[in-house]
Design brief:
It is built from 17 helices and no strands. The chain is an all-alpha fold. The chain is globular. The N terminus is likely disordered.
């Protein structure tokens, strides 16, 4: 493993007193991603109330949300191939404009009263597919905007922007939907994507070296997927961490999204649960700020081990479901999650060849996203069988066990990010 696995593409030079914000491509990337998340944070709130205004059925809302998630997972691997074949900044321009178009159509249908569940499902499928192409491209673009020595602060700033944008966007979105209606909230989301697309066009990146067709025939999509799988599976530390998160996501997301509201209804109330979720987001922002200053050499091993902290909010839901305890527990969990996420991005970006980075990200995302519905589907019936508190303790135990296995792997502890 080398800090610069693709020496044919020269990164921007490092200057004395350098920082990510001194590099224009990174500034445009930060501005574009923060803008898109500001608008996109409004969308789930607006879409939820649009569906409920239309039919009043939670089942219909679940159908619309699930359609987007399934399309996202189904297209992710192909999104990685596209992002590795084409200039990633241009991919992000195209996906931003496509997302703006789909959200604008949804907004127009809702505002005019023409929306139906069938049309919302169809447009959600398109929106999920577009997101599946943009996610690997956005994650893999960072090394093209700053030198490898600045990847950690660059990722921390990006995560800080995303978290801050989520907080502001969700807060403003709730007020916007309440005052002017969900259709206009979706229109704001469309405008955010359109502006992000314009910002991506301002990025000026080093050109990737061209390969003469006679020297290397163009591979098929299947061959590209196989090559990406070799890069993913050939590194033990990569698939060990993804396996850890397959278990961790199933346990954590299932416990917090399904059983968390159940515990809140029986104790401190729904308004209190909103504060608990906000506390986790604040923890994520604090984790990004901490990562800007703390730069350990073996950041991945530390981040993987810190995932044991995410068992604390889950266990607290089971044994001490009081609002003060949960606010602290979820904030701590958010800090740990963010420190890991930044270390993970930095480790992939400095140890995976750039020409395969989007595909490795796509395999990582599929492994992570597939576990979410599994956890959500299993924890409810399990809680009915053995009780809510024992189920939550079991989920916390799974998180600790998966973390212990991953953190004990030498290949994980030895990863060095530049």
């Amino acid at each position: 493993m080398t800090p610069n696995p693709n020496p044919t593409q020269t990164p921007p030079p490092v200057r004395k007193g350098d920082g990510p914000l001194r590099h224009a491509p990174f500034r445009w990337l930060l501005a574009a991603r923060t803008t898109s998340i500001l608008g996109n944070a409004v969308a789930p709130i607006a879409l939820a109330f649009a569906v409920l205004d239309l039919t009043g059925s939670p089942a219909d809302l679940g159908l619309v949300v699930a359609a987007r998630s399934l399309a996202n997972v189904a297209v992710l691997l192909f999104g990685g191939v596209i992002a590795d074949r084409m200039p990633r900044n241009l991919v992000l321009v195209g996906t931003s404009l496509a997302a703006a178009a789909t959200q604008a159509v949804i907004a127009a249908l809702v505002i005019t009263g023409s929306a139906s569940i069938a049309s919302l499902v169809a447009l959600s499928v398109l929106n999920g597919a577009v997101a599946a192409v943009s996610l690997p491209a956005a994650a893999a673009l960072v090394p093209d905007t700053v030198p490898s020595t600045l990847l950690r602060p660059a990722n921390a700033l990006l995560r800080l922007g995303l978290n801050s944008g989520s907080i502001v966007g969700a807060s403003a979105g709730a007020g916007l939907v309440a005052v002017v209606g969900p259709g206009w909230g979706l229109a704001v989301d469309a405008a955010g994507f359109a502006l992000a697309g314009a910002l991506y066009t301002r990025m000026r990146l080093p050109r990737r070296p061209r390969v003469i067709a006679s020297e290397r025939p163009r591979a098929s999509v299947v061959a590209d997927l196989r090559e990406g799988w070799r890069e993913f599976s050939g590194r033990r530390w990569v698939w060990i961490v993804v396996a850890q998160f397959t278990v961790l996501n199933a346990a954590f997301v299932g416990a917090t999204t399904v059983l968390g509201p159940v515990v809140a209804d029986g104790s401190f109330g729904r308004a209190g649960w909103g504060l608990v979720v906000a506390a986790q987001t604040v923890g994520l922002a604090l984790g990004a700020v901490l990562a800007l200053r703390w730069r350990p050499r073996r950041a991945l091993g530390i981040g993987v081990a810190l995932m044991a902290v995410t068992a604390v909010p889950v266990a607290t839901l089971g044994v001490l479901p009081t609002l003060p305890a949960l606010l602290v527990a979820f904030a701590l969990g958010g800090v740990a999650l963010e420190i890991f996420a930044i270390a993970w991005d930095q480790s992939l970006q400095t140890n995976i060849p750039r020409e395969a980075l989007s595909r490795v990200y796509s395999y990582d995302m599929v492994g992570s996203f597939l576990a979410v519905p599994l956890g959500e589907a299993l924890v409810g019936p399990l809680a009915h069988l053995v009780g809510t508190a024992p189920t939550l303790i079991g989920c916390a135990t799974l998180i600790v066990a998966a973390t212990a296995v991953a953190a004990s792997a030498k290949s994980v502890r030895r990863v060095i990010a530049a």
